[in-house]
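So, who can interpret the following?
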Amino acid sequence: MNRKHLFIAAALAVMAFAPQAKAQPAQGDDTPTLEFVCELHVKLGQTYTVGQTAHGARVVIPITGGTFEGPNMKGTVLEGGADYQLVDQAKGRNEIEAIYSIKTDDGVFIHIRNCGLIVTGKDADGKPSFYFRCAPKFEAPSDSKYDWLNNSLFLCKPGGFTPEGISLRVWRVQ
């Protein structure tokens, strides 16, 4: 047995007989926090179904416009994007990938790719459950005051539904 194999065997032996450590919360308060970024009011067009594809049942929801506003940004949701969903009705599960752009009131275009899940069903008590969360990724010009959007993680959830569309609340993970 060469030295490398001997070292690996020794390390495995130590790990096998070491007391099992339980996951402990980190000392101090390093839990991520959320900072509100904006709320988007997205107008949606007529939903259409592509049909059963190699990846699942594909549904497309056109994005026809809207507005957004937050503490550091405000503007319009541009027409031309869409929410592309893979629907699994048997599991009550939709995979979401919305691709669209926004324009700030000071004229900056920002591209967004928002991926997430919608899951409906029953909770442990048999009550109806609804889970809808997404993780938008922003692409803003690097030479703009919105460059910070390129360098953070974000989460969003619906703020409500209207006959015209949906509102989405977006937070930055700190």
